[in-house]
Each structure stands twice: as C-alpha cells, then as structure tokens.
Write a structure and sequence with these properties.
- This protein is an all-beta fold.
- It has one domain: Tachylectin-2, Chain A, CATH 2.115.10.
- 1% of the residues lie in helices and 46% in strands.
- It contains 1 helix and 20 strands.
- The strands form 5 sheets. Strands 1-2-3-4 form a 4-stranded antiparallel sheet, with no helix packed on it.
- The protein binds (2R,3S,4R,5S)-2-(hydroxymethyl)piperidine-3,4,5-triol (DGJ).
- (2R,3S,4R,5S)-2-(hydroxymethyl)piperidine-3,4,5-triol binds next to β5 and β13.
- Keywords: Glycosidase, Hydrolase.
- Belongs to the glycosyl hydrolase 43 family.
- One of its GO terms (biological process) is carbohydrate metabolic process.
- One of its GO terms (molecular function) is hydrolase activity, hydrolyzing O-glycosyl compounds.
C-alpha cells in the first residue's frame, strides 16, 4: 500500500519511533530508496548516522545505525552533520559528512565507506578540501564522476570534482556567491533536468529558516544565473531548510528540516513535490500527498 506523506509532521518509522533523518541524504538503490540522517538523540552533538529504507517515501524501515560515535572526528562531543552517500561505479558506497568541533571552527569534510547502502560504514578521516573551510555539504554524480558541494564561509559555495575513488577532492569546478557577493549559500543540493543544472541553497541563519534559493546553468562550471526563490517570499520555504532535492519517477521531491533547536531529535520534516522546468523551481504547499502524485508532475504555472 502506498503511504501518505504529511509535510511538516515528524517522520515516524514502521516501528513507531521518530525517524532520525535530519540533514537527510537519499539515494535509490535497486528498488528501494535509502535515506541517511543525523541521529539527534543527543541534540547537536554526534550520536550516529541512522539509515532507513522505503519503497514509497512514506513508510520507513529502520536499517540500523550506519555510522556510530567513537574516537577523534566521531567523538560524542563533535558535530557530524548532513550525511550524503554516493554509490561508487565499482559498487561500494561512499558517505560524505560535515565534520566539525562543537564551536563549528574545524569545518572539514569526512569520508566513510561500506559494501552495502546501510553499512556499517568504515570511517576513513577528514580534510579541508583544497585547504578550504567546509561546512554544509551536498553530493552529485554524473557519468560516474562524483561531485561535492561544500559551503566555505570565506570564498563561497564550491562545487568540487571528487577524485576517481571519491575519497578526496580533486578540483574546483565552480564557486557561487549570493547575488550581493557577501557569502555563499549553505545546505546545498544539485540536480539536472531538461539540459539545465539547478543548484539550491539556503542562507546562513543557524537553526532559523529562511527563503531558500535556486540558480541554474547549462554547464557545471557556470555561468550560474542570479538566484531566485522557490517558495512564496517570506514563507521561509514553508518553515524549512532544504537538505536535498531528489529525482523520483519523473518528478522531484524537496526535503527540508523544520529545526526545533530545543529538541532537535523531534524536528519535523517538510517533504513536498517540487516542480522543475524552464529554469524555474516551484514549491507549493500540500497538506498531504503520495509518491503516485509525482508521475506526470505538473509543469510550473499549473495548479498542483
Ligand atoms: C545551519 C546548517 O545548515 C545546519 O546543518 C547546522 O549546522 C546549523 N546551521 C547549526 O547552527
């Protein structure tokens, strides 16, 4: 049976527990969607990266803790955020993580590998990509090449090409800034649709939500267009901060966090179809929807 998705509600897994899918990453592997999220049981510091799987994006089976707290970068007093996974062309899985100290001064990207999507992942270490600060991250893959999106507070939002083994960063493909040039966006995600790349990001407002933005380009190296809103201006993206936009069944799904800083573990999530085409990305509110609604998703301008 196809489950119903209710944007703005807490995600509950098949066992009735609050799914720890904060700062989520999603990939389709075979006939299932796998999702990895920050387990916020301890608040902002590290507990684990939790893994779940689903066939309909509504019903989530807990697959176990994919990466657990330990020593060094993974110590319980550290920040480990925004787990994102790519399936390497050789068939194994690489997890990318925002690794930080509790004061967010370390600003590094971490790498872990596993033979199966749910893990367990073996942590390999972290780096400052090409020497740059790296906080919020996203990933992208095309023709077997892996890319890392990474927010650098000094220089902007970088799109890096990964080394062939995906375990380090090789080169900067593009760096984008907010239109006023003040800084780059964070919580980045990138998709390709209809011959255009769509790069999404959120402004730098801590746990507070803001109007998330999109920029487009015909080439990953740019030029990237001026940024445009994706949801009604002033709605703070329906009170959410994006984590990923996921291609699903010919449509796309926006997934964002509605952070509740006093109890991050119970932060609700906003999952909505996002209409993408002709250089425009449009998020419209729905009280509920199912994966079946994505098939033949409406074009921008049509009523959802
Ligand atoms: C915004 C980031 O997008 C989140 O992942 C988290 O790091 C918060 N800042 C912490 O304030």
């Amino acid at each position: 049976m196809t489950g119903v998705i209710r944007p703005g509600e807490v995600i509950v897994d098949e066992a009735g527990a609050i799914a720890q899918l904060h700062g989520i990453g999603v990939q389709r592997v075979g006939d299932r969607f796998y999702a990895w999220g920050e387990n916020k049981a301890a608040g902002s510091t590290f507990t684990a990266v939790s893994c779940y799987s689903s066939t309909d994006l509504a019903t989530w089976r807990f697959e176990g803790e994919a990466l657990t707290a330990g020593e060094g970068d993974l110590a319980a007093d550290r920040i480990v955020e925004r787990p994102k996974v790519l399936e390497h062309p050789d068939g194994h899985f690489v997890m990318f993580l925002h690794i930080d100290s509790a004061d967010y001064a370390d600003a590094r990207v971490g790498f872990a590998v596993a033979d199966a999507p749910a893990g367990p992942y073996r942590y390999l270490g972290s780096e400052r990509p090409l020497g740059n600060l790296s906080r919020d991250i996203g990933v992208y893959q095309e023709d077997g090449v892996g890319y890392l999106l990474s927010e650098d507070r000094v220089n902007g939002l970088h799109l890096y090409r990964l080394a062939p083994d995906y375990l380090s960063v090789e080169a900067i493909v593009a760096t984008t800034l907010k239109d006023d040039g003040s800084h780059g966006y964070e919580s980045p995600t990138l998709i390709r649709e209809g011959g255009l790349y769509y790069l999404f990001g959120s402004d730098l407002t801590g746990w507070a939500m803001n109007d998330n933005m999109v920029s487009t380009a015909t080439d990953l190296a740019g030029p990237w267009s001026p940024w445009a809103g994706i949801a009604p201006a002033g709605s703070a993206t329906f009170e959410s901060q994006m984590s990923v936009v996921v291609p699903v069944d010919g449509g796309h799904v926006y997934i964002g966090d509605r952070w509740t800083p006093d109890d991050l573990r119970t932060s609700p999530a906003v999952w909505l179809p996002i209409e993408i085409g002709d250089g425009v990305a449009t998020l419209r509110w729905r009280d509920e929807w199912t994966i079946a609604d994505l098939r033949g998703a409406a074009a921008p301008g049509d009523d959802a």
